[in-house]
Structures are given as structure tokens and as C-alpha cells.
Design goal:
This protein folds into 3 domains: about 80 residues, no CATH class; about 80 residues, no CATH class; about 180 residues, no CATH class. The protein contains 12 helices and 15 strands. About 30% of the residues are buried. By secondary structure, it is of the alpha+beta class. A hairpin with a 6-residue loop joins strand 13 and strand 14. The chain has a 7-stranded antiparallel beta sheet. The structure holds zinc ion. The site of zinc ion (ZN) has 8 residues, from loops.
């Protein structure tokens, strides 16, 4: 038995009164966050001015001081109407944000640079708050402390039964708003038998792309959702319509609501599509290999940015990371420096350059001609078979440092490596020759 953490997300159907309560709680979280941030800033300013006693307050200190302050005449008059959780959790978020910023600045944190936490503006930042305590899931509703029982649009009975049986434990609830819709996301810990593998011994390389959502090493191409493309066209139209309306007019407000609603719909389409793909991958393959993409860096390129964020690379990774252990498979992230696109999947030769627009990989050494994305997917499968040693279920961390050298794979190096590793079905030689 092992404990697996997961998030269960449900679309909520609150009453009008509940909507007001939810909005007030989100407001409390935002107010507290900004209040805490102002204190942190003041402490940092004092430190800079040479005050040796100035300390950046911790989440715990902020919460204590907030509880005193909120009761004062200049505090917040509505404090009795909201749970004490949202501010407390907001301070924790702030603390985590600050830590991430400092780690990033010291260079102790991988990935893109983290910015200093910024103020949450009403209407600009997402309305959301977190609750802990007595949270109960019912067949078609969820009971939240201080808020009451909120109806759900979805059937939650499958999970509710497991909560009752004690195999699933709810630890927290995050309530958030997307346009006109409220969502409740429950953080749960589930007791689960994790099989050593899901029965599949193969290694599947997955190349995420801009044209197709994903190309698998067995040649399967998963297109992006069609509905999403249609949705995006409509989104552009609505967005144009909105910007043409006079500022402050009733028509503009109406157009803004329509636009926000459609945004939420497109986002949910995308999420749905990614969920289906990641579940299938985690369920049917022993090992799933993906590239370590610097998504933040790629989003800097504006022409590509929309298509990339649509494909939801980061979300894809996140979903796989929790679904793989759930289904007893393994997620391997190939080293960032592994040239999956430039390497020939047949002879191992590495090209010095491969323009982004070139959709076909042609090897000068062995003459292999293959779809660019499929070549990359096969290389990823190969990388895992030759680098990843048997490890427990879960994400195999890509080696930072030691494995970096694998960037320079000598030509022909795969011959020896695949000879010792179990033959991954992702490397279907027959399929390769068809393509050649
Ligand atoms: Zn070759």
C-alpha cells in the first residue's frame, strides 16, 4: 500500500447566496495576501535602510498579526463573515512565493527565474481561496466549512464512496472562479496498491509538438483538439468585438462577459483533451518518456506562444507526473541537453543544425528519412532504455550535472546501448524501415 496524492476537480453549482459567500472568501484571501505582501515589503525596505531589527515576517507571524489587525476599527469589518482559513493559506502561498524567489535569485532553483510576488488585483488575478478542516464529499455535493453544502454539476459518488470507506482522505479544498463558473478542487491522499508495473513493459517516447499535440515513438500522432481550433477562432472574434465596444458601455460589459465565458470553455476543452491523452499513456505503457522542455523560455517566442500554451506542455507534464505512479508506470524526463530532434534514431549520428520548419529528418550518415517528430519520440524512448535504471514507480528525475554529458552521444553509440537494454517496443525497427 502506498499513499498517492491527487487533486479532484469538480464544477460547482452554488446558489446565489453561496456565490456571494464564495466571492467574499476569495476577497478575504486577496486582501490578506496583499496586506502580508505590504508588510514584507516594509520589512525589506527597513532592512535596506539599515534597521538591524527588521525581519521579514513568516506566514505564521502574518496570520497572528492579521487576526489582531482585522478586529481593529481600521481593519476589515466583515471578518466575522469569512472562515479564517483563506487568509492563513494566502500567507502560506506568499511565504512559498518569497522562498521560490530567493532560491531562484541564489541560483538554487532550476527552471525559469521566479519573480518577486506581486499584488493581486481585483478582477485581474484569479479569484481563489483554500480551505482546510471538515470537508465532506457527497454524491453530488461537497460540504465546506463556513460555506455549507455546495451542489456539484458532476457525479462524485465514486469518490464519495471511497472517502466513506476510508481509502481516500480529503486534506484541503481550493475554490476558484473561471468567468462565471466556480470550481472546487479537492486535494486527496489515497491508499492504493501500486503494482510494480501496469503490466506493460514497453517504453513509449512522446514528442510534444506545435502542429500535432503529441507524436509517439510507435508512430501514433495525436492531433490537437479540433474543437479547440474552432474555439480559438471564436475567441478571436469575440475579443475583437469586445475591443470595438466603447469603454464603460453596457455593450462592452456584455461583450466582456461573453468573452470570459468562452475563455473558460476553451480552457476546459484543452484540459479534457490532455486528461484523456495522459490517462491513456499512463495506463498502457510501462515507461513514458518526455523531453525536458524549458516551457517558460519557449513562451518568450510570441509567434509560437499561443500554439504552445494551447498544447499545454507544462500541464501535460504535471498530469503525467501524478498519473504514471497511479497506474503503475514510470515517467522519465530526458535530459535537457539530449538532442532528441537532431539525433538520428537509426545510426545515432547527431546533426549540427535542424531548422524548426523542417518537418522531415534526413540522416546524411545512414540515409534514414523519417518524420521529424517521430524521430524525436524514438530517440526519447531510446534515451530512457539506455539511461534509466530500474527505479520505483514515479518520475525519474533527469540528472542535473552528471547526465548532462549525454548531450554528446557518439554516432553509433546506440548499437551497444540497445543491445544491453531490453528492446523497447517504441523502437520498432520495421516501422523505421518503412519510413526510410
Ligand atoms: Zn542515421
Amino acid at each position: 500500500m502506498a499513499r498517492v496524492r491527487q487533486a479532484l476537480r469538480f464544477a460547482a453549482d452554488p446558489t446565489a447566496a453561496q456565490r456571494r459567500t464564495l466571492a467574499r472568501h476569495a476577497g478575504a484571501a486577496r486582501t490578506a495576501y496583499n496586506w502580508g505582501l505590504a508588510r514584507v515589503r516594509a520589512a525589506l525596505d527597513a532592512q535596506r535602510a539599515g534597521d538591524p531589527t527588521a525581519r521579514v515576517p513568516s506566514a505564521r507571524t502574518l496570520h497572528r498579526e492579521w487576526n489582531t489587525w482585522k478586529r481593529r476599527p481600521d481593519g476589515i469589518p466583515w471578518w466575522t463573515e469569512v472562515s479564517k482559513c483563506p487568509p492563513q493559506e494566502a500567507f502560506r502561498d506568499l511565504e512559498r512565493g518569497l522562498q521560490a524567489f530567493w532560491q531562484s535569485r541564489r541560483g538554487d532553483r532550476a527552471g525559469a527565474r521566479v519573480r518577486f510576488p506581486h499584488r493581486k488585483q481585483k478582477g485581474r488575478s484569479r479569484d481563489s481561496f483554500r480551505l482546510t478542516g471538515a470537508i465532506h464529499l457527497h454524491e453530488r455535493a461537497v460540504s465546506l466549512p463556513r460555506i455549507g453544502t455546495v451542489r456539484l454539476f458532476e457525479d462524485a459518488s465514486r469518490w464519495a464512496e471511497r472517502v466513506t470507506a476510508g481509502s481516500v482522505h480529503v486534506t484541503a479544498a481550493t475554490v476558484s472562479r473561471e468567468a462565471h463558473r466556480w470550481f472546487v478542487s479537492l486535494a486527496v491522499e489515497a491508499e492504493r496498491d501500486i503494482p510494480i508495473t501496469n503490466g506493460a513493459a514497453d517504453i513509449m517516447g512522446v514528442d510534444l509538438g506545435v502542429l500535432a499535440l503529441a507524436t509517439l515513438s510507435d508512430g501514433t500522432v495525436i492531433p490537437g483538439p479540433k474543437a479547440l481550433h474552432r474555439g480559438l477562432r471564436k475567441l478571436r472574434r469575440l475579443s475583437r468585438g469586445h475591443s470595438r465596444k466603447r469603454r464603460g458601455s453596457r455593450h462592452r460589459a456584455q461583450a466582456a462577459r461573453r468573452l470570459a465565458r468562452h475563455h473558460a470553455r476553451v480552457a476546459s476543452l484543452r484540459r479534457d483533451h490532455l486528461h484523456k491523452l495522459t490517462t491513456t499513456l499512463a495506463k498502457t505503457h510501462g515507461t513514458v518518456v518526455v523531453e525536458d522542455l524549458n516551457v517558460r523560455g519557449m513562451l518568450g517566442n510570441r509567434r509560437l506562444a499561443r500554439a504552445l500554451s494551447d498544447a499545454g506542455f507544462a500541464e501535460f507534464r504535471r498530469l503525467l507526473a501524478y498519473k504514471c505512479p497511479w497506474h503503475g508506470s514510470r515517467l522519465v524526463v530526458a535530459d535537457r541537453w539530449f538532442p532528441s530532434s537532431k539525433r538520428c534514431s537509426r545510426c545515432g549520428g547527431v546533426k549540427t543544425a535542424l531548422p524548426l520548419g523542417e518537418r522531415t529528418f534526413r540522416c546524411d550518415a545512414c540515409g534514414l528519412v523519417i518524420d521529424r517528430d517521430r524521430n524525436a519520440a524514438i530517440n526519447l524512448a531510446w534515451w530512457a532504455s539506455s539511461h534509466a535504471v530500474a527505479s520505483s514507480a514515479g518520475e525519474t528525475q533527469n540528472g542535473r550535472g552528471a547526465d548532462r554529458k549525454t548531450g554528446a552521444v557518439p554516432a553509433g553509440g546506440d548499437e551497444a546501448a540497445t543491445g544491453t537494454a531490453p528492446e523497447p517496443t517504441g523502437l520498432r525497427i520495421g516501422g523505421l524501415e518503412d519510413a526510410a
